[in-house]
TrEMBL record:
Record-linked Gene3D superfamilies: 3.10.450.50
Pfam families: SnoaL_2
Name of the protein this chain belongs to: SnoaL-like domain-containing protein
Organism classification: Bacteria, Bacillati, Actinomycetota, Actinomycetes, Propionibacteriales
Start and end residues of each SnoaL-like domain: 9-103
InterPro entries named in the record: NTF2-like_dom_sf, SnoaL-like
Length: 117
């Protein structure tokens, strides 16, 4: 049975928080496109590597709302990190054939960037 976009988004967030990168990779199409304030990536392995890097400072993801239709989902959450105050974040995903094919993330990265020095 194929997961819905909302189920895939939930699995993505849960896998990232639990640092289960094998599971997270299984949710992504090989040629997933990721665009966010800290990276632009065009394949699943680099996407997972970027999320692994962020997980070093990730404390928790506090989901506020999730809106989904047949092919996409937006998750609104507070990104809690050890580096900065919580960052309100919008994460949009497109789903095709049961896999995440596109991810667009919007948040203010200034606190994280300032902590990097």
């Amino acid at each position: 049975m194929t997961a819905t976009p909302a189920e895939l988004a939930e699995a993505y967030v849960t896998s990232w928080q639990e640092r289960d990168f094998t599971r997270l990779r299984s949710l992504l199409a090989d040629d997933v496109s990721f665009v966010g304030p800290l990276a632009t990536i065009d394949n699943a392995d680099e996407c997972v590597a970027g999320l692994q890097g962020m997980s070093r400072i990730l404390e928790k993801i506090e989901v506020k709302e999730r809106l989904a239709d047949d092919s996409s989902v937006i998750t609104w959450f507070d990104l809690h990190t050890a580096a900065a105050d919580p960052a309100p974040t919008a994460n949009w995903m497109r789903v095709e054939d049961g896999l995440i094919t596109e991810i667009r993330v919007a948040f203010d990265p200034r606190g994280i960037l300032a902590a990097r020095g």
